[in-house]
Amino acid sequence: MQSVRAGPSPVGSYLPAVALQPRPAVYMGDHGPPYQHMMQLMAPAMNDASPVNQTLTTVTAVSTQAKEEELEPDDEQSVAEDKKLEYVYCGIDWKPFLPTALVSSTVAGAICVFLIQIPIICRATGMREVALYTTFGVLFLITLGCMMYTINADPGLSRRTRNVSHDIEEGLPQRAHKSRQYDHPIRRYDHYCKWVNNVIGLDVPGLLNHREFILMVGGLIAIALLGVLMDLWVAILLAEEGSLDAEVAVALHLGYSVALLAVAGPIMKIHFGLISRNELAQEWRSNQHYVANNTSKGDNVYVEELSDDEFNEIFDRGEFIYDKNRNPFDHGFARNCLNFWCKPRWPADSSGNF
């Protein structure tokens, strides 16, 4: 896929055709396994509220003075129209229905498992139904709970109970970012997810959804994997019984499980890498921590300092390299993971700079 950079920008600016950049399977640092990002699968999943659609607020590492960059009105309107067309089929904009589709499909999958798969497996193996009902019940409840929380949580600093004087007088925290969905910038902004129609990040005390988002994705992957295994097992059992109605239901559930795994798997793969490096998706998209070698300016050159042509050429070759030294929040794999899962995020004075 040909990449196009729309023009020089401190954080990187791209035309709508390029949403999420694939990273190479190599980076500079001493932690975390290398992995290849999947641009074509994940572009719609994480970047509907990308910087080309919204007012940017970034803060340099030297100071916390906010710096906003806005698109020209004509460009903003063009980008909005292009993004809208991505979800229009048969003249209908389906994007607003994606959160409902995610929740309803998960509930429908749970009903199928409880009414068909579990009884058939228990009848064939002699297992106690209560054990399977309890296991899958907890899994679905946690997943659906995190899903509803992620959808409804407000990651913006829009509550009146929040003391926002720090934002105005001292400048925004380094990892804060402006989203067109909320009045105030969002601390520790990660990304916008179309499936929950919400921003993922750090917000007012008690309402944060980054960890819940990861738990939701992890739960969906577990549901998909177990669903595939159960469906294949039950399909074999049903072939012996000849129950057509149950076979159709199991076949549909198998298709759902495979599709769910194909969508949720790449998302988790990307975020596992981001968490292991303590890199936010917004920082990853804007190339803040990436360099390139063998350029016209030499080696270890920040990619945003390259010309558009050279940037695109190196990007197409997949030779962007993660530079740990450019990420002041990267403290190694173990500490990064510990901070993500255990560091308190609800204190009222939390800046999100961790």
What's the gist of this structure?
With 354 residues, this protein is α+β, with helices and mostly antiparallel strands. The protein contains 10 helices and 12 strands.
Q: Explain this structure to me?
A:
InterPro entries: Palmitoyltrfase_DHHC (IPR001594), PFA4/ZDH16/20/ERF2-like (IPR039859). This is Palmitoyltransferase. It holds the Pfam family DHHC. Residues 173-285 form the Palmitoyltransferase DHHC domain. It is an enzyme of class 2 (transferase). With 354 residues, the protein is of the alpha+beta class. The chain has one domain. Helix content is 48%, strand content 11%. It is built from ten helices and twelve strands. It has helices spanning 39-46, 73-85, 98-125, 129-152, 165-170, 210-241, 244-277, 281-285, 308-316, 333-342, and strands at 5-7, 13-14, 27-28, 56-59, 66-69, 88-89, 92-93, 187-193, 198-202, 290-292, 301-302, 321-323. The strands form five sheets. A four-stranded mixed β-sheet has the order 3-12-10-11, with no helix packed on it. Strands 1-2 form a two-stranded antiparallel ribbon. Helix 3 (98-125) packs across helix 6, helix 3 crosses helix 7 and helix 4 runs antiparallel to helix 6. The longest helix has 34 residues, at 244-277. The protein is elongated, with a radius of gyration of 22 Å. Mean pLDDT is 74; it is low at 6-82 and 156-169.
